[in-house]
Amino acid sequence: MEKPDIITAIIIDDDPFCSFQLQELIGIHARQIKVVAACDSAEEGLRNILELAPALVFLDVEMPGMNGFEMIRQLPVINFEIVFTTSYDHYAIKAIKINALDYLTKPVEADPLKEAVRRLTEKREQNASLPQQRNIISHFTAEKGKTDALLQNILPPGVADELKQTGGSEAKLYDNVTVLFTDFVNFTSIAEQLPPLELVKELHACFSAFDGIIERNGLEKIKTVGDAYLAVCGLPVPDEQHALKAAQAAMEIIEFMKMRGEDHKGFGIRVGVNSGAVVAGIVGVKKFAYDIWGDTVNIAARMEQHSEPGKINVSGATYQLLKDHFICDYRGEIPAKNKGMLSMYFLGKPANKS
């Protein structure tokens, strides 16, 4: 088995604990990365970048004197990938605008680090084909009819139009959206009992039905990851009824799975919903992917993880938007990983209005 190419990296962070912790994680989870320097200031980082020419720089945003963004502006050419490390989500748009590979919330955890390394590896493998990809985009513009059908299927309409007109799409902050997460119960154990083709067929049937429910209720499908399904309402076009529409879609998904369970040996399902602000934009260079980031997404995932089979678990933020429209069962404050105590509610029947 061939060893992966070594990726040289520099860490620039004025906090020695964060720098050491990141080096420890890299040594355990990203051994193809070789840290050639750890710098405690932007000025030292600039010197080492020019001297060592790393392939990757882990760059702290907030440092005394010159911050991370100011340091980048000092470089005449950026011929390395940047992963920003920060304690604040609001830097995400700025990081994406300067084509950073990723940004990691401090203290850095193993899974986000591994995802950033995966993106880097994929990007390096695809660099040789970038000119061909640009030709493909130009060809899509010439073949307008086919392009419209393709892009409208994989990207939200407004984002697809922006991509066609400018060749790119800026990340945007959306203050008021509702995020919906679903996950199948005991998926791994059930999957082990089904032949692969039957498993894929069952997933396709469920996710195809979810697609129809999501579209019918005015939500935007973001992606599926394994047996998880992610959607959002309120972007790219703002919608004052984002929470109501997401709740309706969640209820229809639960009902579909109940009906399917009566006729098939189907999966159980948990649903989590949260409302708030997200950053949304296109990621990737070979296969365009529209994605969302931010604490609102993370809390929606926690809502799903703490839900129960056949139920919709909503956050306190979503409850405030739904309390006049649905009967909700308050579950109290429940500890959620990396989020502390969170108020949670099971979504019930629509409230009767006289």
Summarize the structure.
This protein has three domains: 7-126, Rossmann fold, CATH 3.40.50.2300; 128-166, no CATH class; 172-350, 2-Layer Sandwich (Alpha-Beta Plaits), CATH 3.30.70.1230.
Explain what this protein looks like in three dimensions.
- The chain is α/β, with parallel strands linked by helices and 354 residues long.
- It folds into 3 domains: 7-126, 3-Layer(aba) Sandwich (Rossmann fold), CATH 3.40.50.2300; 128-166, no CATH class; 172-350, Nucleotide cyclase, GGDEF domain (Alpha-Beta Plaits, 2-Layer Sandwich), CATH 3.30.70.
- Helices cover 44% and strands 29% of the residues.
- The chain has helices at 16-29, 42-52, 68-73, 92-97, 110-126, 130-142, 144-154, 157-166, 187-193, 196-216, 242-263, 295-305, 316-322; strands spanning 7-12, 33-39, 56-60, 81-86, 102-105, 172-185, 220-225, 228-233, 268-283, 289-293, 312-315, 326-336, 340-350.
- Strands 6, 7, 8, 9, 10, 11, 12 and 13 form an 8-stranded mixed sheet that branches.
- It is globular, with a radius of gyration of 22 Å.
- It starts with 6 loop residues before the first strand and ends with a strand.
- The model has no long low-confidence stretch (mean pLDDT 85).
